[in-house]
Structures are given as C-alpha cells and as structure tokens.
Amino acid sequence: MLLIHPPAAKGCEPPAGIARLAGAIRGHGLDCTLLDANLEGQLFLLASPPTSTDTWSLRAGRNLKDNLASLRSPGLYRNPSRYRRAVADVNRVLALAGQSHHLSLTLANYQERNLSPLNSADLLRAAESSEANIFFPYFSARLPGLIEETRPALIGISLNYLSQAPTTFAMAGFLKKRYPGLPIVLGGGLVTSWLRSPAWKNPFSGLIDHCLAGPGEEPLVRLLSSDFSPRHHTPSYSGLPLNDYLAPGLILPYAASSGCYWNKCLFCPEKAEGNPYQQIPPATVLADIASLKAATRPSQPALLHFLDNAVSPALMQALAAEPPGIDWYGFARISPLLAEPDFCHALRRSGCRMLKLGLESGDQSVLDAMNKGQDLALIETVLRNLAEAGIATYIYLLFGTPSESLAEARRTLDFVVRHHSAITFLNLAVFNMPINSPEAPFVTRSEFYGGDLSLYTDFEHPKGWSRKKIRKFLDQEFTRQPEIARILHRDPPIFTSNHAAFFC
Fold first, then answer.
1. Which pLDDT score is estimated for 62?
2. What is the tally of helices (H) and strands (E) in the chain?
3. Which of 78, 168, 366, 417 is most deeply buried (CB count within 10 A of its CB)?
4. Of 268, 256, 252, nearest to 437 (Cα)?
5. Same domain, yes or no, for 177 and 216?
6. 182 shares a domain with 327
7. Minimal CA–CA distance to 433: which of 464, 474, 402?
8. Helix (H) or strand (E) holding 344
9. Residue 340 is part of a domain; what is its CATH number?
C-alpha cells in the first residue's frame, strides 16, 4: 500500500495519520510505503522560486537556503525577530509561486480563487484538470516512479484539512487516468466529517473507490488481507524524511486517544459528529513513546506533540510519574488535577513545556450555556499554578456562541487582561455552528459557506451578536488592549502553536 499525505498543510512535523496506519499495516506483515507529498511538494516549489523585482522578493529568494536551514536550527528560535523575518521570507517565496497560478499559497494554506473545497463539483473539476494544479509537476513525476518501485495494491490518501482538498483531488484524477485499475482509498479527518454529515451523498464514485470514516486501520488491512487482528500497534514513521521538516529538531506527533473524554460541549464538532472516545492505556502510551524514540534514531525527537482533543488526567499522571525523556505539549481540559500546585510542578518536571487550553470565554454564564463543566475560579487557579510551575499556556477563545453578546465578550476581555501574566499565547476564533450541532434546531439558520460539502451553517444570533459586530469588537477593542496585544505579538506567525513551545 502507498499512503499519501497531500499538500497543503504545515510542514513542521511528520504526518501522524499515515504513520498510525502504517504501524497497523506493517504490524500485520504487509508492505506499506509513506509519502509526505506536502513537505516534498512545498520544497519542490521552493527549489525553483519565481523571479520578482521588488526588494522583499529579491531578499527572500536570495536568503531562501539560509532561512530554511535556520528554521531547522534551535538558534533561530532564541531570536523571535529573526524567526519572524525568516518565516515571512520563506512564505514570500511560496506566495509568489502561488500568484503565478492565481491562488493564495502559504506555508500553512492553499486557496484557489475559482475553486471551493466545499463544492464537490469543483473538486471533481480539479481531478479532471489535474495538470492545472501548482503541484502537478511534482506529483506527476514523483508518483509514477514510486508506484513503479513499490507496486502498491492500492493507494490511500489522508485528507484532513480543506487546504488539502484541491491537490488531493488533482492527484486522484491523475492517478485514475494513469492507473485506472489501481484502487484509491480516501480517509482522514475531513473525510470523516463529510461521511458523518446527515446530508452526505457520495459524489465521488468513479474517482474514489473507497471513502473511510474514522480509524482506517481495520478497513485498510481488510482490503489487503482478510486477516485482521485488533491488537494495538505502535505508529511507524519509517520512510518519512524526519530531518527535513521545518522545525529545530524532530517533532514527534502522537495520539493517545480519539474523540474527547468530556464530549459534552454543545459547540464541539466531536459531539456533533458522534465520534466515540477511545483511549490507549497510559502504560501502552509510555511504551510506544520509548519505542518511537529508539526507532527514530539518530533523529532524536526534540518535542513530543500529543494530538489528543484533551490529554486525559490518567495519562498526565502517568507522564508525571514516569517522564518520557522528551519535552512535550498538547491540549488539556482545565481540570481539578491542574488546580494542584504540586502536580503542576511534577508535570513540568515530566517535560511538559506548554498546554493548550480551551478557555473559550471569561464569562461564567457563557461557559455554563456551552456545558463546559468549568467555573472561572477553577480556571484562575489553574492558570496561576501553571505559570508558577513554568508551563506555558496557549489559550483558545471562542466568540459568537448563541449565549454570548457584547457584554459577555467584554467580560472575557476583562478576564484576559486580569490574568495576562499567566497567558503565554492566545488564539481568537469566531464561532461556526456545525450543521448537526444540538443547538442548530433552536436558531434560524441560513447557508454559511456555499457548497454541498459544507460542515457549518450560518444562523441568526439570538442576541444580535453578528459576525460583523464580533469582528469589529475584536479588531477595534479586544486586540487593542496593551496587555492582550503583547500576548498576540508572541504568537509564531503561520506555524502558531506548532512552533510556540520552542519559544517557551
């Protein structure tokens, strides 16, 4: 089997999805080849930068090789100003390449002007005219050679983000024309969301042979062999270019669970899609990490990235009791466990460099309406304890939920200002209501993003707190508070939370 991680996404760590699948496939004694077409494709475009005469572009092209080397070196991350300039310059080169194809292309995103990844007709058109895709010169040369070398029985493509959809379908169209008898399997986070939408009707038959929702280990193994064992398999990163990612050392992504152990927040897509919670036992997680450390030598991991929606208290306790020997970060729920100062210090000693926390709001009534199961007193204690323990925080705020108005949003502003010294980074988002959210039947809805693959719906806000008003508040009031502006300025451009831990 050939498993592909397609462009375009952040190329700072190896793709965990196809590595997890590879672990199960290889664990069943089957051959598996991994291709990070995202990283390879981005480096392919950067290898032949377009010519431009403006000062910035000339500088960016001239310094490209040095900037790429710097992004892979720890020294750059000790100088935020130099880091920002290096990222901006590398991104400038990629953006210029995108302009020549009339699309917005960055180190983290891909957006065509006349193609919507939420419209199946547009994606089928991308498949039919694959040679128009900016990555076509790369994958039209790379894939035939790899297929000739490995002779796969099927090809799996992991589609997780909207930014990957146009090139995913361009690659699928190319493969179907060149190898009409070679089955194509499509899976990943975005595909799972599509398939679990109540409006899903497969528009891709004839191009995609199998669409898979949720974990793909069992269906992929069964497509290759009828013999499947449900035992646990450690992810396998063998065959990926571990030294080429844009980070100051190998970031090792690992998912210790799927779904969310809380799974009660009204706004959460995990709840809306009905994704079940499944956790790998903490002892198995620690054994996997030790095994991956040995398997990735000599590329000794610099950072462990937990991909869980929330690292469970049981796993945090296991990490504190038996440190993995690698600094780590990930999402966590604000829980009573983190209200214990001694535990926070133990967590820092385990290597915890940063925790990402979904605060969402600084108003108690909004938190209650979301069914977050948290109170502001607990949140304040946790923020204080983490700061005192030396653990950085990446705080996520969500504006525009049905229970919020300008008054509640201002209380969130006041909360952040009061606790700014305990908040290292901030992420600000405007609420998108999932189509099958529990709240959706109780509001007047309208089309949000046009297209039959859209996962969200626009709605008439019960308190008149429209998206336009929210953005005005964020732009003209929230982000202009000096304490908040300083926090926002720390955020690494483009790579954001994926690089933030290196600045802690």
1. 93
2. 20, 18
3. 168
4. 268
5. yes
6. no
7. 402
8. helix 341-349
9. 3.20.20.70
Task: Give the phi and the psi of residue 233 in degrees, each rounded to 5.
Answer: -130, 135
Which pLDDT score is estimated for 440? 58
Q: Across the beta sheet with 33-36, what order do the strands follow?
A: 33-36, 2-5, 155-158, 184-187, 210-211
Tokens at 443, concatenated: 């509001």
The ranges of the chain with pLDDT < 50 are none
374-416 per-position pLDDT tens digit: 999 999 999 999 999 999 999 999 999 999 999 999 999 999 9
**Same domain for 324 and 210:** no
Per-residue tokens: 308? 């869980």
Number of domains in the chain: 2
Q: Are 35 and 166 members of one domain?
A: yes
Gap between the Cα atoms of 272 and 269, Å rounded: 5
Task: Give CA separation, 475 vs 159, 362, 427, 469, in Å.
Answer: 33, 18, 14, 10
Which position has the token pair 């001694």? 342
Looking at the chain, the whole-number percentage of residues with pLDDT higher than 70 is 96
Residue 15: domain span: 2-50+100-224
| Predicted local distance difference test score (pLDDT) of residue 451 | 84
Bridge partners, 51 (sequence order): none
Same-domain pairing of 167 and 288:
no
Q: How many CA atoms lie within 13 A of 440 on its CB side?
A: 20
CA-to-CA distance for 77 and 226, rounded, in angstroms? 49
Is 0.90 surpassed by the pTM of this model?
Answer: yes
C-alpha pair distances (Å), 81 with each of 180, 193, 486, 489, 490? 50, 38, 14, 11, 10
C-alpha to C-alpha distances, 42 to 36, 142, 429, nearest whole angstrom: 10, 13, 27
pLDDT at 447: 62
Q: What is the pLDDT of residues 251-302, one digit of tens each?
A: 999 999 988 888 887 777 766 667 788 899 999 999 999 999 999 888 789 9
Same domain, residue pair 217 and 323: no
- The reply to whether 193 and 254 lie within a common domain is no
For tokens 């909004």, what's the residue? Answer: 366
Report d(CA 120, CA 202) in Å as an integer. 9
What is the per-residue pLDDT for 226? 76
- The residue type of 212 is L
Secondary structure E strands in 169-280: 184-187, 210-211, 250-254, 257-258, 278-279
